[in-house]
Amino acid sequence: MGAVVGTLTMQTKQRRPSRDKTDDELEMTMVCHRPEGLDQLEAQTNFSKQELQILYRGFKNECPSGVVNEETFKHIYAQFFPHGGKVHHFLIRSSVMLLENKRTYVFLCVADASMYAHYLFNAFDTTNNGSIKFKDFVMGLSILLRGTLREKLEWTFHLYDINRDGYINREEMTEIVRAIYDMMGKYTYPALKGDVPQQHVDAFFQKMDKNKDGVVTLEEFVIACQEDETMMRSMQLFENVM
Amino acid sequence: MAAGVATWLPFARAAAVGWLPLAKKTMPKPPVDNTSRSDEILYVNVSGVRFQTWKNTLDRYPDTLLGSSEKEFFYNEDTQEYFFDRDPEMFRHILNFYRTGKLHYPRHECIQAFDEELAFYGIVPEIIGDCCMEEYRDRKKENQERLAEDTEANEASDAPLPPHSTSRERLWRAFENPHTSTMALVFYYVTGFFIAVSVIANVVETVPCRPPKGSVKDLPCGEKYQLAFFCMDTACVLIFTFEYLMRLFAAPSRCKFMRSVMSVIDVVAIMPYYIGLVMPENEDVSGAFVTLRVFRVFRIFKFSRHSQGLRILGYTLKSCASELGFLLFSLTMAIIIFATVMFYAEKGTKGSTFTSIPASFWYTIVTMTTLGLVKLDSVLQKHWSQVYHQNFIRLKVRLARIRMAKKGTTNAFLQYKEDRDRDSDSTALCVKNRSAFEHQHHHLLHCLEKTTNHEFTDEMNYSELCMTESVGFRTSRSTSLSSQQGAQNNSTGCCPRRARRRAAMRLANSTVSVSRGSVQELDTLHIKTTSIPPQTRSSLNAQADDLKLNCGEQDFTAAIISIPTPPANTPDESLPPSPAPIPGILRNTRATAYTHDTVKISSL
């Protein structure tokens, strides 16, 4: 009985990848995006021509069509975190049920970098069309790596402000913090309690929300960050990444 | 690691800026990066064929020869290039792997040569892309089987007899390799002859002969010349019995010999005769005896000792047993369906021969075989094997690959942390052994740890810590309140999702049929843990009990090595894809991808 159900679920899950594949193919034939000229990009970003070349080579290799969609983005980002993305989780479980004679479960860890990757994707996708072109990618990187402090803080603010209304409220912050904690995975030391993210959010609002109106505006955010010495120092950390 | 991971590391590190405002602690210092930033072209000379590629391309896979510092061993100062004395054709494929991220298996190449090249360049075959993976695995399996057969044949071949072998060993050799001595050859041919005689006699005795004088009816020869056939049969059976007993005596391992297929065939071939001797001349029983004589036809299989071809046929059948099984199953399904349809269609009709469904089986079978529906089945089977490969083999492979990749990154990082904690003074030594990529990657993970103020561990340490914390919890009840609180916090953190766990246990007990013993153990453990007296702080009472339950169970489950469970039923599938609370069995991540021997239950 379980095998039958497993087969059925297998089939439904199998259909999705094939649809994605056809979607991707369509995308590739219809949308083959070429970035603006090297000179223009150099003018608009803080990267040198050589750096842009290196970046583009990597980008093009990963996404020959010239755009990154959210799934690929999540997949790429998940590679960096030990316990990986959760997207394989159920597919593997149902398939392995049918594979194994001993019929044991296989369970991959439930860490999940995909939520944070989702917010990151939205932050990069300034045109909000569900895909990141090379220009968006490079502009984002330029701010993060070579931008002024103010620019970086603004970028971070926009990352946290999920609905782009100019305010960060508690719910948005909780989402972000949960996403970050999800990346840690289950196996942490000390082990994660259910409301550690909430405590973290409370601490954050304590620090950032000056007028205690329950939301953080851009100005409050920038001022609070500039007051924080350790954070200012940390901002310099990633400058030599490229 | 997946394609291009090293390329995207700068992006991932840049994205870490988003964590900074949330960081509870200061970030660690970034790794000192002395390597030049500009990309350079490397020259790789493989047996005279010159390849050029960006350094970054090779750096994408830092755990291979070309991606790590190992290639420096092959650097030629004079010509400023890396020289490898290997096959340039194969190297092309290897280099394409770096460029595109997919490793393809060239179909025209020998599988062993390809494997050797992969081993040399430090590339794991599991990375072969889905497009070529089936082919690779099929060829590899084929090759291994052939090698196994070859070694078997070599062992069994005409090697000179070891000196001082007992007569028993010599006899066994004579039986297995008739070519070794003349006697053995004679015996071999004699038995072959008698097998043929026996089979022919079986056939001939049913042929109708001319009736004897004074009778009209045609008699089968077997009854006319009953004595002659009986003598012939006796002679054959005597020879076969003698042969079997000799083999049994000579066999190095009698139990193994008795279990082997050939010996079973031998026994089946001669039993009917002896049973016939013992059987009384009873009307009722002789019917059964006649049926037994059918087994005499199995003597023909004794020829497989004499014929290599028959043995190969046997192996072929064995190797595609699963596909044959499926073929039979699908045939049976079709037969049942059509027979049922025919029966009910013809039910009302008078004088219908389809008196019952089994009666319609015959009709269906004949029709199907006549019309060549078996051919349809073979087509079905071919596609089935394709689909089987696609769905199951690929998924299995992908699963293995994912697990390997995760294992790689997890273990690398945790190893780095261990080393760092162990000798914080002499980090210089450890530093040298790691590539720049690893440094930066670990720095990134370190930043995440600092942001959340928690550290990465693996499940082993996690379960250990959980157990030690719960133990510490029990023993620290007499200490000060703050430390109690601290310990409690730790142990609350130990097993956070207690409500879900309870639901999970209920689910586990209802849907998963755990063996009786372990269910009992669960129950007893439950009782045991709840009997622990509650904490002084009343508000934490309920929590404490539940926690104890959970930690106790974790204690218990960590000790289980393997429990066979049936596949999950529908309740599992209907759960939303959030961290599933159903206890599952986590395969030991330390083992290699393909060993499924050790499994561990990890409750979530």
Number of helices of chain A: 12
- Tell me roughly what share of residues is in helical segments of chain A: 55-70%
β-strand amount of chain A: 5-15%
Rg for CA atoms of chain B: 36 Å
Question: Which radius of gyration of chain A do the C-alpha atoms yield?
Answer: 21 Å
Number of strands of chain B: 9
Which whole number gives the mean pLDDT of chain A? 75
The total strand number of chain A stands at 5
Report the order of strands and helices of chain A: HHHEHHHEHHEHEHEHH
Number of helices of chain B: 24
Strand content of chain B: 5-15%
CATH class of the domain at 164-306 in chain B: Mainly Alpha
Give the uncertain stretches of chain B in residue-range form: 426-432, 473-604
How would a crystallographer describe the biggest sheet of chain A? 2 strands, antiparallel
Q: Tell me roughly what share of residues is in helical segments of chain B.
A: 55-70%
Task: Report what the structure shows.
Chain B: The chain crosses the membrane at residues 183-204, 224-245, 257-279, 324-345, 357-376. Chain B: Residues 1-16 form the signal peptide. Chain B: This is Potassium voltage-gated channel, Shal-related subfamily, member 1. Chain B: It comes from Stegastes partitus. The complex is a heterodimer of chains A (242) and B (604). With 242 residues, chain A is mostly helical. Chain A has helices at residues 2-30, 38-44, 49-62, 70-78, 89-99, 114-124, 134-146, 149-160, 170-184, 196-208, 218-227, 229-235; strands at 67-69, 131-133, 167-169, 188-189, 215-217. In chain A, the strands form two sheets. In chain A, strands 1-2 form a two-stranded antiparallel ribbon. Chain A has a two-stranded antiparallel ribbon with strand order 3-5. The longest helix of chain A has 29 residues, at 2-30. The model of chain A is unreliable at 9-19 and 84-110 (pLDDT under 50). By secondary structure, chain B is mainly alpha-helical. Among the domains of chain B are: 41-155, Potassium Channel Kv1.1, Chain A; 164-306, Voltage-gated potassium channels. Chain C (Four Helix Bundle (Hemerythrin (Met), subunit A), Up-down Bundle); 328-374, Helix Hairpins (Orthogonal Bundle); 377-415. Helices cover 61% and strands 5% of the residues of chain B. Chain B contains 24 helices and nine strands. Chain B has helices spanning 5-15, 55-59, 88-100, 111-120, 130-156, 167-176, 182-204, 221-224, 226-250, 254-259, 261-278, 283-293, 308-319, 321-345, 357-370, 373-422, 427-432, 436-452, 459-475, 481-494, 498-511, 516-530, 541-559, 570-574, and strands spanning 41-46, 49-54, 75-76, 81-84, 208-209, 219-220, 455-456, 584-587, 599-602. In chain B, the strands form three sheets. Chain B has a four-stranded mixed beta sheet with strand order 2-1-4-3. Chain B has a two-stranded antiparallel sheet with strand order 5-6. In chain B, helix 7 packs antiparallel against helix 9 (226-250). Mean pLDDT of chain B is 70; it is low at 426-432 and 473-604. The chains are: A mainly alpha (242), B mainly alpha (604). Strand 4 of chain A pairs antiparallel with strand 7 of chain B, so a sheet runs across the interface.
